[in-house]
Every structure is written in structure tokens, then in C-alpha cells.
């Protein structure tokens, strides 16, 4: 039997977003400055670019602010996996996008998420400048803190446009990071079961 339950969690305060609070003219000036930095010409600059970017920033802010992580009571402890979850974030070193897929698996300890919350959680944590390594552990910690499962595992595979566009300019590099905790760390069979299931179609190529 599954019974709906609201988790009572201390919500972390969100800092005001300085750019989104800026005046339209100030914001437009900032975006125009970046446009010129990457080679854009003033005569080609369209103020609609600022409006679109501001709207995108507001969309990311809403993802960070989302906190309706409804959980359910459950009386089973079979592994639950969300696979091929969409990932989009920004490298905090160059402010260039990185993107890919996330796999999350956990073994419940009387609480489970609604299935849509897997993607919501990934979006929440990745909607600001990040490092892939840190992001992997932050997703794991979110699951731990919200559900207190018997075990949890997270795998991220991503392409970084900062590697593609600058420096080494690699056209094929993909980066995989993983983090495990609880029974996933203590029991190698459990960890291997998780890795086997998320790679059953070969897309992650682990």
C-alpha cells in the first residue's frame, strides 16, 4: 500500500538574483557588453536578445526555487531507477553549457518519490553554474536528505562545450562521473546491478 505524504523539510532560503532584479536598461547593457566580448557588432545587436535571455534566466530561477518534492510511504525495498534524465547546466569556469544524461537509483526505506521528481531534482540542482563532479554528489545528497534511502547511486554522462570550443577543442570527449552511498557502496553486487540496469541499452557505455 502506498500512502501520500508531504515531507516536512526546511527550505533553504534563495538569494535574490541580482541580474533579474536589475533595471531593463542595466540588464541590456550587461548583455550587450557580453555580446561585444564574443565578437558581436553593435549594429547587429537586437534588444530582443536581452529579453530572451532574461526570460531564460527567470525559467532557470523557477527550477532552482522548486521545492514541492512530494513523497509517498511505501512498504517495499526494491530498487527504483530513473534513467536517461535530461541534463543541462553551465560550466562555472567558462559559463559555457554542458549537457547529457543522468541516471539515479535508490533502494527505499519506507519513502519513495513521485516519478516526475527525478527530473525536477536534476533540473533544480543543475540550473546554475556547476562542476559535473560536484553536481553528481549534490544530486545524491538531495536524494539522501529527502528520502533517507537504504542506498543511492547517481551517474552523469555529459559533453562539455568548453572542451569542444576552446583549449584542446576535443570533438568527441564525454565525461562520466558517479557517486554511491549506503548499500550501493557497501555491497558491490547491488552497485553492479544498478550499473547493469542503467546501461542495459548501451547508451551510457559504462
UniProtKB/TrEMBL annotation:
Start and end residues of each GTP cyclohydrolase I domain: 47-198
Annotated EC: 3.5.4.16
Residue runs in coiled coils: none
Any one biological process term the GO annotation gives: tetrahydrofolate biosynthetic process
Pfam families: GTP_cyclohydroI
InterPro entries in the record: GTP-CH-I_C/QueF, GTP_CycHdrlase_I, GTP_CycHdrlase_I_CS, GTP_CycHdrlase_I_dom
Pathway: Cofactor biosynthesis; 7,8-dihydroneopterin triphosphate biosynthesis; 7,8-dihydroneopterin triphosphate from GTP: step 1/1
Record flagged with keyword Protease: no
Top class in the EC scheme: hydrolase
GO cellular component, one term: cytoplasm
Catalysed reaction, written as an equation: GTP + H2O = 7,8-dihydroneopterin 3'-triphosphate + formate + H(+)
Top-level taxon of origin: Archaea
PROSITE patterns the UniProt entry points to: GTP_CYCLOHYDROL_1_2
GO MF entries: GTP binding; GTP cyclohydrolase I activity; zinc ion binding
Keyword set, alphabetical order: Hydrolase
Keyword Hydrolase in record: yes
Name of the protein in question: GTP cyclohydrolase I
Amino acid at each position: 500500500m502506498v500512502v501520500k505524504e508531504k515531507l516536512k523539510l526546511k527550505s533553504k532560503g534563495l538569494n535574490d538574483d541580482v541580474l533579474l532584479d536589475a533595471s531593463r536598461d542595466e540588464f541590456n547593457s550587461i548583455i550587450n557588453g557580453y555580446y561585444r566580448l564574443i565578437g558581436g557588432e553593435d549594429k547587429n545587436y537586437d534588444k530582443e536578445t536581452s529579453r530572451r535571455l532574461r526570460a531564460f534566466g527567470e525559467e532557470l530561477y523557477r527550477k532552482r526555487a522548486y521545492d514541492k518534492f512530494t513523497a509517498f510511504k511505501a512498504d517495499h525495498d526494491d530498487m527504483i531507477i530513473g534513467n536517461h534524465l535530461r541534463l543541462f547546466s553551465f560550466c562555472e569556469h567558462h559559463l559555457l553549457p554542458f549537457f547529457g544524461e543522468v541516471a539515479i537509483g535508490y533502494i527505499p526505506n519506507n519513502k519513495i518519490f513521485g516519478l516526475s521528481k527525478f527530473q525536477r531534482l536534476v533540473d533544480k540542482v543543475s540550473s546554475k553554474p556547476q562542476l559535473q563532479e560536484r553536481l553528481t554528489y549534490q544530486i545524491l545528497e538531495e536524494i539522501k536528505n529527502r528520502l533517507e534511502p537504504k542506498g543511492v547511486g547517481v551517474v552523469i554522462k555529459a559533453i562539455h562545450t568548453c572542451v569542444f570550443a576552446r583549449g584542446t577543442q576535443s570533438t568527441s570527449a564525454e565525461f562520466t562521473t558517479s557517486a554511491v552511498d549506503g548499500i550501493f557502496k557497501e555491497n558491490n553486487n547491488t552497485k553492479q546491478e544498478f550499473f547493469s540496469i542503467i546501461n542495459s541499452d548501451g547508451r551510457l557505455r559504462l
